[in-house]
Amino acid sequence: MTEHQIEIAFKEYNTLTELNETDHDLCLEAVKAMEGSHSPYSKFRVGAALRLQSGKIIYGSNQENVAYPSGLCAERVALFYWGANHSDDPIEAMAVTASTDEFEILQPVTSCGSCLQVLAEYEKKQNKPIEIILFCNNGPVWVMNGVDSFLPFLFFEKRLNVEVKG
Ligand code: THU
Description:
The protein is an alpha+beta fold and about 170 residues long.
């Protein structure tokens, strides 16, 4: 029997103002993205903003539905839009934030497993890691370089996909 340990590396900043200007600006775009949230059931607004290599920003927000499982997280709304419309322009970074009037959010929202799996697919497709910036109104900012640090055992089987090389 061999026991393994995996370390997860990420950076923590106390405030958004400690980020470099490009990442700080992307966080402001994620705040803007929350305006599109359709969340009458959870009342939890999530915004995601992707910065592409060209400088273009893609917005996503959570879209809920009265048939609950039909809804989708902000991250996947943004990522699938990118996949459908801009996949020739690599994603450099994704900023995610959330807000609610119901309680105070003191820690950044960490993306769910399905969103991380989708992120991983596109990282492999573009062959470049995506910087992930998670923040909230009154808490720290967490920055990870690439989805591997989040989801080390993500599902990947290159023989199932002829398009993704590696
Ligand atoms: N949600 C996201 O949009 N992203 C996440 O990373 C976690 C959860 C949404 C889904 C749902 O609309 C609401 O937040 C409450 O779970």
